[in-house]
UniProtKB/TrEMBL annotation:
Keyword Cytoplasm: yes
Assembly behavior: Interacts with 100S ribosomes. Associates exclusively with 100S ribosomes, which are dimers of 70S ribosomes.
Stored HAMAP family: HPF
Annotated Sigma 54 modulation/S30EA ribosomal protein C-terminal domain residues: 131-184
Signal sequence coordinates: none
Organism: Litorivita pollutaquae
Gene from which the chain derives: raiA
Entry protein name: Ribosome hibernation promoting factor
CDD domains reported for this sequence: RaiA (cd00552)
Its job: Required for dimerization of active 70S ribosomes into 100S ribosomes in stationary phase; 100S ribosomes are translationally inactive and sometimes present during exponential growth.
Primary location group: cytoplasm
Length: 190
């Protein structure tokens, strides 16, 4: 597994890097057969250290976790425990997902835009134009998944929404977390 361990405006020593590689490698190898790479980012927020970990699995799925603690090793250990809990929860489905697939998840390119918000000082004022201002443009990857795999991917990534290409009908679908805690699925008619 490839590791990318970095810090945002903090120094990451060799001892911490070794600790991350050892502990994360053990935690992930228990539940995922062939993880491909891991990205761990440390940062400082006021008096707490923040650890964000993302692990990409050979099946195309991604697991993410984030933790805050007062010490940097404790932040990583807490983040690693959350990641391990997610993988343990989905172990059977991860293995089923891998056995059903002969090829990794196919990813399609898409465009992702960040639009400027309309924060007018006066709420009664009208905007100059109805066209939004594009702040940033990026490329997004849209996976080709079944609905069950999409829900699992959304849960593993701890994301509120996931856009995917439905393997059943080749259409673009959306799964999202509803306010009542359930999962919603949007399947437009073609």
């Amino acid at each position: 597994m490839r590791y990318q361990i970095s810090g945002k405006q903090i120094d990451i020593g060799k001892a911490l890097q070794t600790h991350v590689q050892t502990e994360l490698g053990e935690a992930v190898s228990k539940y995922a057969e062939r993880p491909t790479d891991a990205q761990v980012i440390f940062s400082k927020s006021a008096s707490e250290f923040v650890c964000e970990a993302t692990v990409h699995l050979s099946t195309g799925l991604t697991a993410q976790a984030k933790a805050h603690e007062h010490e940097i090793y404790a932040a990583f250990d807490s983040c690693c425990a959350k990641l391990e809990k997610q993988l343990r929860r989905y172990k059977r489905r991860l293995k089923d997902h891998h056995s059903n697939r002969s090829q990794p998840v196919e990813l399609f390119a898409g465009s992702s835009y960040i639009l400027a918000s309309d924060h007018a000082d006066d709420e009664d004022s009208e905007p100059e134009t109805l066209q939004p201002i594009i702040v940033a443009e990026m490329e997004a990857k849209i996976p080709s998944l079944s609905v069950g795999e999409a829900v699992m991917q959304m849960e593993l990534a701890n994301a509120p929404v996931l856009i995917f290409r439905n393997e059943g009908n080749e259409g673009v679908n959306v799964v999202y977390r509803r306010e009542d805690g359930n999962i919603g699925w949007i399947d437009p008619k073609n």
